[in-house]
Write a structure and sequence with these properties.
Blueprint: E1 12-14, H1 18-23, E2 32-35, E3 41-44, E4 51-55, H2 76-89
Antiparallel strand pairs: 1-2, 2-3, 3-4
Amino acid sequence: MKECAECGGSNFRLVNDSILKRKLPFVRGDNLKMCDDCGAKYVTCDNCGGLFTRVHLSTDVYGVNETCPSCNAKDEKITQWVKHGVESFGNY
């Protein structure tokens, strides 16, 4: 995925968001991009560089992709975070 799911924009830049890094263990300084048009933030895929999943302050286990929509790669840190959340909160 190379377009923003929120606005359809295609211009992104690397950003550093210390709050998201503390909240989400799979967010690093080198894998977080922000849409220049609307400000939506995405974790990028380590395999293909595409937009893996959108993240924000209210992201929960049901709001993240476990596989990259561009190349179907998995991110083990995201998978573990989702698994832990589902076990902690149960299924809705």
